[in-house]
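TICKET #2291
ISSUE: user wants both folds in one file
ATTACHMENT 1:
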Amino acid sequence: MISEVHRIRSKKLLPYIQYILYNRYSSNLEHSVKSFPNTNICLGITKDNSLDQEENTFVSKKGKTSNIFAYTTGLYTTPHEFKVLNNWDEICIDFHPCGYYHFFNFPSKPKIINDGFTNSFFSQKDLILFRSIFNETNLKNRSIAIEQFLLTKLKSFDKDNLQLAISYIHLKEGIVSVKEVLRHTQCSERKMYKLFMDHFGITPRWYIRILRIRKAIQLLTYNPLLSLTEIAYQCGYSDQSHFIKETKSMCNVLPKTLKNNLIAIDNKVIIG
């Protein structure tokens, strides 16, 4: 699998989108990639292919020629595996959590893997545009066209309490309690719970857990000399034992095993 990250150039889009990731594969041999819990929302778009879902595993399948297939996995709390079984050309637009809703109304919850989603998500005009984008071999030109498309979709998102909560949780790097978030946003627990469930399919507490484990994954990748105790402290875990238990729960492996299987793409995307 050849993967390449393109950073967003438009200043108008930067507050909402992290990057565009291109994944290409030219073989009939199976290739597997593991994605760990993260707080970005990925919109994946492919041409001539689609995905089937088997629990936490997504498997590519050959689709109709020139068909566009789109999906979003939303925010998930355990690893997801992507198996590519044939030639593959994919565009992944990775949004900041609330950024997604500045473009699309369709919920970003996990397990939206079906053809009906593509047709509900994109207009016929959009599908024609993406067919032309996939015909463009120069990825820089693809990115320019995608950004132009996204600028036409940019709109307001009026869930201020949700955006304020997300911003505060990230400001605190996940080292914060739900009660502190509620005090900061002056929002009731019931309303905040509903906002998170409606838009992300997880609770505020789960969002905090994902952000913490993601920071730990970054430290394991980019600061290999740090001890597990130091990582646990920096990520807000009570001790090393708590960190190990959380890693096992959310990544299905122990921290040392996880560390040995992490791959960074352009210092931006971390996979296993």
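ATTACHMENT 2:
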Amino acid sequence: MKSELADMAMDQKRTILDGDAPDAVPVPHALVPHLDELAILLDIDGTLLDLMPTPREVWVPPGLSETLKHLTERTSGALALVSGRSLNDIDLIFAPDVFRAVAGHGAEMRLSADNEAEAVHAPPLDKELKRRLAALAKLSPGILLEDKGYSLALHYRLAPHAEKAIYEAVSLVRAELPNAPIEVLPGKFVCEIKHSGFTKATGVCELMKHEPFKGRRPIFIGDDVTDETVFAIMPDMDGLAFSVGRRAMGVNGHFDAPADVRAFLARLLDPR
């Protein structure tokens, strides 16, 4: 039981396959004339933006916001960012631009870029649980704590040696609180703890029930384990899924790096 979560993290990372997964995806020019039929759904960290040593160091490359705004216009607003970050965090990154979004792994949603109203699907984590989990940042120098309200993330990109200790400690907390409605999300040098019952996939399903997304064919691009729930539902929506930096199971293709995703999105605007 002590190493259950550490083993789980390793098992989830093994979903990356080398033999059966698709090759890098070419730009699907056939989609360009049909942007008015598409919903474009984009993860942020590791997909649109390059990963950095800490979450606060990410930055929006020149031209990306303009590309996203033009795609929003061409799709009549059917472009949304799908992220584990909070809405507030997303807005700080892309300021002064505001985009429709599924945030907090599906806990928050903004259906209109002109409307600050948020649809909240989960309560914040219990304060005592947060306190106990936050104390795990003391396991090693370099572990960074991020409180997202609906979840709590322990980033260890600056302390990769601490991965096993983090997951073992989280497993102990869960063993002591077996009835706590929480779920652990292993990611790229991050262990995130959130309320169970909502995911990026549940957020996307809710998003696709509303205009201007309703009735459109979704295209989702993501890079991490937390994006796999969305990869899994794309066939049910006649959608397309693309992974970044790895060849994930069940996707239609993959990009090598966020720069390739940004170039792909820019080329969607140019039929030539």
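RESOLUTION: both attachments delivered.
EXTRA DETAIL ON ATTACHMENT 2: The chain has two domains: 4-10+123-195, 22-122+198-268.
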